[in-house]
Amino acid sequence: MSVLFEVAGLCFAYPRRPPVLTDATMTLAAGERLAITGPNGAGKSTLMQILVGLLTPQAGRIVAFGAERRVEADFQEVRRRAGYVFQDPDDQLFCPTVAEDVAFGPLNLGLSRAEALAVVDQVLARVGLEGFRDRITHKLSGGEKRLVSLACVLAMEPEVLLLDEPTNALDEDTTARLSEILRGLPQAMIVISHDPHFRRRIATRTLRLQQGRLVTPQPVCRHAGMGA
């Protein structure tokens, strides 16, 4: 099984703040859906941004798609092959209509307008938003924006999906719908999530980020109370 991401010994600290990553190490293999959990402020989103070169660690090694990545030019290829779905859809959606947002990536890859619109229809159908092509983006519900953000990333045909708290502020029905969509996709995934039910639905493996390191969560043992 091929390894898509491999990071070792990552260390990162924001200026004038304690380190958030200290020797963080992990791998993502093809076909895996890796969930990452941990307390607020543990560095989960920081780790995700390092994987695509949006932040630079102070130490550590990043190998993505079989090549070590060090400088911005290296990460340009990574960002083409790994689709990043931000925690807040409003950080990702910036065009007036759904079609324009979803077509933006394919058009920048050199597709014609007709080809890009065909991709729009395909990915909107994949996420259950048929007929949304001409909807005004800022008038969508939170759940609809989340699904459009996913469609924007899928339109680029990435090999890996990176999702930062994809169920944040979603109701139960939309969360279940998103779970089924993700389970049906062929891409490997790294998913940051605080939601244990969501993680159980989609993850093939879970790591916990704590004290700057990624560890396998230990099962919780429950002991029956002692009688009198």
TrEMBL record:
Gene3D superfamilies found in the cross-reference section: P-loop containing nucleotide triphosphate hydrolases
All residue ranges annotated as the ABC transporter domain in the record: 5-228
Keyword rRNA-binding on entry: no
Record InterPro entries: AAA+_ATPase, ABC_transporter-like_ATP-bd, ABC_transporter-like_CS, ABC_transpr_CbiO/EcfA_su, ECF_ABC_transporter_ATP-bd, P-loop_NTPase
An example Gene Ontology molecular-function term: ATPase-coupled transmembrane transporter activity
Listed PROSITE patterns: ABC_TRANSPORTER_1 (PS00211), ABC_TRANSPORTER_2 (PS50893)
PANTHER family: ENERGY-COUPLING FACTOR TRANSPORTER ATP-BINDING PROTEIN ECFA1, HEAVY METAL TRANSPORTER
Family: Belongs to the ABC transporter superfamily.
Identification of the protein by name: Cobalt/nickel transport system ATP-binding protein
Organism: Roseospira visakhapatnamensis
